[in-house]
Amino acid sequence: MPRPKKADKPKNIGKAIADLIKGLKPWRVPVIFACIFAAGSTALAIFGPNILGNMTTTATESLLGPEHKITWGPIVGSLITLIILYVISAIFDYLEHYLIGRVTAKLGQDLRSKILNKIAKLPISYFDRHQFGDTLSRMSNDVDIMTESLQSSLSDTIANIVMLVGTLIMMLTISPLLSLIAVVTIPLSLIVVGKTAKVAQEHFHAQQEILGKLNSNIEESYSGSIVIKVNSHEAASRAEFGKVNDRLYTAGWKAQFFGSLAFPTTHFFTNLGYIAICVLGGLQVLAKNIAIGNLQAFIQYVNQFNRPITSLAQTASTIQLTLAASERVFTFLKEPEETPDYEPARKIAKVEGKVDFHHVNFSYEEGKPIIKNFSATAWPGNNVAIVGPTGAGKTTMINLLMRFYDPTSGYITIDGTPIAEMKRGDVRALFGMVLQDTWLFSGTIEENLKYGNEKATHEDVVKACKECYVDHIIQGLPKGYQTKISEDSDNISAGEKQLLTIARAMIANPPMLILDEATSNVDTRTEQLIQDAMRKLTKGRTSFVIAHRLSTIRDADLILVMKEGNIVEQGKHTELLKENGFYADLYNSQFSEE
Q1: For residue 108, what are the CA distances in angstroms to 27, 118, 149?
Q2: What does the pLDDT read at residue 3?
Q3: Which among 119, 277, 332, 522 is least buried, having the fewest CB atoms inside 10 angstroms?
Q4: 266-277 pLDDT, tens per residue?
Q5: Strands 383-387 and 542-546
């Protein structure tokens, strides 16, 4: 795999750290206390080698003294002091880990909630531009990386810094010359570590990006498994997955390799210094410039001094991975949300159902118009069919009507009220939708049917299902209306799913309806039954029907014929056939195929 481009690096590491600190703000008090306990635990442990060194010096001097006997009093006193220090240090360490564990768990919970809330506030255009698997990866993998690494690296970093500074001070009090030898190895190791960390950061970021793509690939392969099998695309699907998986493997091992170079690098340089200290320190003891206990303490301090440097070097790779994950999470949380609703928002007291499109223009991308100067009127109770070839703008018109998008220019009104001056939720509540792509969630059939109207009674549900000719299908299931639908709804057929979504729209009892090829997944006989049920449902309601099978909209009050974003014809079925224009060509071509 080629080395990641510079653009794959975080744009602003400082900003990522600032965002992370801001995210921890609600728990700043326990974080501060955790840092204090981490620093306190380490600071108390620093005095251990000095006390042990004094004990060694006392024992040695008393043995070499006139009486050649060990004086136990000072030694026992020092031992008791040492035990007390270590006990307090252990308590501080326990409290620090308890607090930081609670904080990171809360942070993960908070970030997942914010991501879920963010999803609800994002415009539809975001989901059109981004893969589902990548968003899922940010919510799961990236948040897990942040919380797990913070739990280990935050307290460790503080403890290592305190250990480094405290140990250096103790070493200087014993021997400035030996301290100089210990310190001189640090710049050498830091230069090498800095260069490897920079390369590792690029690969860690690339690893997270590729992981998001891999999740998207898995999600697509899983949800589209039937299509893959039907088209004998298994080998190609595996090959495509293998390519992404190989890229993840390459980025992963490179990230781990360069990230783990810190330990052997620092270990090599510190061992060189350790050898020099042992030789020179021994000469100092022989020259009686340093007590033997002080040399013992100094050697212990050298080990302690090297340990935080090595640990910080190891933690650097974890911090880099944390920053890469943090950047992805907070970048998502900063994505532009839907524009705020108009204030004060207008409401329609009593919905009549007149819908007007006033010179509507719209484009997904600047310079590529989809809808051009669209004007039309749907009168209350009208059944309006929207027909045209693929790409004519039929679904786009529905997206504008539901305020999933707002027109580039022009406006839409319902009963004379511009929908741009209404709350999006209020606009969408006016419509019941039955889409070509069915969606059912895990739960009972009755729970699914009440999704748009939780106040509906069981009798309301049964009545709607009978009108939709789906009651006998439900009654034939093991537990009737209480039958559980699996996560992927694989225990009911595609046609039955469509019937259930139509019944759900009936139960919601909305003032207006939108039907996007709602009968596409049912057979001819069921289609006739559904058409009969739809006539009952749409009676007295303004309804918009996107139809590809023109035989299903012969009785529409108004047919809007779209081509390249414009209405090229409009009228009733018989009128449009008499004109012998574009609609007649579409209809006759379908009739001849049938």
Answers
A1: 12, 15, 12
A2: 35
A3: 119
A4: 777 777 777 777
A5: parallel
Q: Which two tokens stand for residue 71?
A: 């004086």
pLDDT at 9: 44
| Crossing angle (nearest 10°) for helices 494-508 and 458-467 | 120
d(CA 171, CA 184): 14
Q: Is the dihedral of CA 270, 271, 272, 275 positive or negative?
A: positive
Tell me: the pLDDT tens digits for 189-199? Answer: 667 776 777 77
- The single-letter code of the amino acid at 477 is L
State how far the alpha carbon of 269 is from the alpha carbons of 193, 204, 492, in Å.
11, 26, 67
Q: Is the pTM of this model over 0.70?
A: no
Q: 582, exposed or middle or buried, with CB in 10 Å at 0-12, 13-18, 19+?
A: middle
Question: Which residue(s) pair with 594 in the sheet?
Answer: none
- Report the half-sphere exposure of 448 (CA within 13 A, side-chain side): 26
d(CA 305, CA 315) in angstroms, rounded, equals: 16
Rounded to whole angstroms, the Cα distance separating 37 from 91 reads 9
Whether residue 501 contacts residue 464, with contact meaning beta carbons closer than 8 Å, is answered with no
Would you give the DSSP letter of residue 405? S
Concatenated DSSP letters of 199-222: HHHHHHHHHHHHHHHHHHHHHHHH
What is the residue type of 190?
L
How many Å apart are CA 561 and CA 558, to the nearest integer?
Answer: 10
Question: What is the four-CA torsion angle of 554, 555, 559, 562, rounded to 10 degrees?
Answer: -30
The contacts of residue 357 (CB under 8 Å, 6+ apart) are 374, 375, 376, 377, 397, 410, 412
Distance, in Å, from the CA atom of 16 to the CA atom of 534, rounded to the nearest integer, reads 54
Q: Are strands 368-378 and 355-365 parallel, antiparallel or unpaired?
A: antiparallel
Question: CA 502, CA 451: separation in Å to the nearest integer?
Answer: 12
Three-class secondary structure of residue 71 per DSSP: coil
Report the run of H or E that residue 34 belongs to, with start and end. Answer: helix 28-64
497, 438 contact by CB (below 8 A): yes
Q: How do 484-485 and 431-434 pair as beta strands?
A: unpaired
Are 175 and 294 in contact, with CB atoms under 8 Å apart?
A: yes
The tokens 């998001």 sit on which residue?
Answer: 212
Tokens 């009968």, residue?
519
Q: At what angle do helices 143-174 and 72-121 cross, to 10 degrees?
A: 150
388 alpha carbon, distance to own chain's centre? 38
Alpha-carbon distance values, 133 to 117, 130, 210, 338 (Å): 17, 9, 11, 22
